[in-house]
Amino acid sequence: MKDDNTTNTSTDINDTDVNSTDAPKNKSRRKFIKGASVATAAAVSSSMITGFPMIWAQNIKNITLRQFGTGVSNLNAIAEQCKKDLGFNLQLTSLDSDSVTQRAVTQPRSYDIADIEYWICKKVFPSKVLQPLNTTRLKLFDKISPLFINGKLTPSSPIAQGTAPHTVGFVEGKDSTTFAPSPTDWMTLIPTIYNADTLGIRPDLINRPIKNWSDIMDPAFKGKASILNIPSIGIMDAAMICESMGAVSYADKGNMSKDEIDKTIAVLIDAKRQGQFRAFWKSFDESVNLMASGEVVIQSMWSPAVAAVRSRGIPCVYQPLKEGYRAWGGGLGLASHLSGLELDAAYEYLDWYLSGWVGAYLNRQGYYSAAPETSKAFMTNDEWGFWIDGKPASSDILSPTGQLMEKAGAVRDGGSYWDRMGSVACWNSVMDENKYMIRKWNEFIVS
Fold first, then answer.
1. Total of domains in the chain
2. Domain enclosing residue 262, as ranges
């Protein structure tokens, strides 16, 4: 973990402004907040501010906010830093994606903050278990990446298929559960983390270049391939594979018809019966162990899992592919029951999450911060150059806990932030035929 006193405190991104956006122009407040937020971020990064809740610091000490989500971002280090900076306790619970969805809807009094992905939000928010978030209470709203505001990395970028975060990112009003077609003052989630996913490979065990999603179906890898077994995500990887093979043509991979689902599952079942797949993983650790052991040489994978394999001294590459990436994004939602001092504390926590420390911590794991400009203030120039600009590392790259991740001279797989997020083909999604898709996916798994 980096010492805040040694970080680069500059917030000027110059020609690498990852936060250039057509953000909603909401009266004059946006102009005021934008200026104020720069000063806030700079102050935080330079340790001028040691805790956000100045006025009610004494009252907040006994507050505990209960947060749950996947293990990707429910990390003890974040809870510890939250306690240090804000003064209250953050109690974390990690679950798999399917369990997150179920708990969010069926046990709304068991949590205060839901750390969920946007495709899950599409399932959860209409149930009224989360309250719309008032963006006028967020000092750093204008630092959020445009991908979460209007779906575009740059003003000229196309919007990828699937459940792009901005399509479920706003509702029409403070009591609404209807997703708004354009930005409003009421968000469903405050975005926190996102990434572009592809296939991981063991280059030392593969004797040819890997260029396409369809390469996972090469008979040369029979019994040594794997895909993840989370239906709403696995089906998207399957669609990338089938489209690359020329086996299925989709109108929208993120919202398949029953016929498209049937054709996709048929391809998977046939491959499974031919012995193509070694396993179907559900957890981060499973994917790491499959690849590190050599049982699998090509599989669906997450960027930090690739880094975890490499940290063991084992060659592993997060392979850029011709057809592009499958992307995902997550955020924090507040339970409907939150009110009073606890609600105030939750809003302080949301602003803190966007203020840079957490973003830098996540960046160093291979993810991206939803407020990249503030995270830069907590990273060295070399770290930013490696993780965001795609430049060769001038020194060894370390994990947030100080472990060696990459040696000096290494370049991040897939290149810069703009190369990777600019090549997104689809986002994780919830389809209109979601129930049918899950039933067919389960038929594939048990076939």
1. 2
2. 197-324+423-446
Evaluate if residue 165 carries a pLDDT over 70. Answer: yes
Degrees (nearest 5) of the Cα angle 170, 171, 172?
130
Q: Looking at per-residue confidence, does 402 or 170 come out higher?
A: 170
8 Å CB contact between 411 and 422 = no
What is the pLDDT, as a whole number, of residue 18? 52
Which CATH number do you get for residue 436?
3.40.190.10
The region that residue 132 occupies, defined by phi over 0 for left and psi between -120 and 50 for alpha, beta otherwise, is beta
Longest CA–CA span in the chain (Å) reads 65
pLDDT reported for residue 356: 97
Tokens (6 digits) for 366 = 């291979």
For 273, phi then psi, to 5°, come to -65, -25
Mean pLDDT score, 10-23: 40
Q: Report d(CA 426, CA 447) in Å as an integer.
A: 27
My answer on whether 287 and 347 are in the same domain is no
Question: Dihedral sign, CA of 119, 122, 127, 128?
Answer: positive
* Residue 84: DSSP 8-state: H
Write the CA distances from 367 to 309, 361, 385, 416, 420, integer angstroms: 16, 9, 14, 12, 11
pLDDT for position 234: 95
The pTM assigned to this predicted structure is 0.83
E strand residue ranges, 308-376? 317-319, 325-335, 368-369
**DSSP-assigned beta bridge partners for residue 369:** 193
Tell whether 415 is covered by a domain. Answer: no
Of the candidates 157, 64, 126, the one whose C-alpha atom is nearest the C-alpha of residue 417 is: 157
Query: Coil, strand or helix: which one is 348?
Result: helix
Structural domain contains residue 396: no
- Is the CB of residue 114 less than 8 Å from the CB of residue 104? yes
Q: Are the C-beta atoms of 346 and 113 separated by less than 8 Å? A: yes
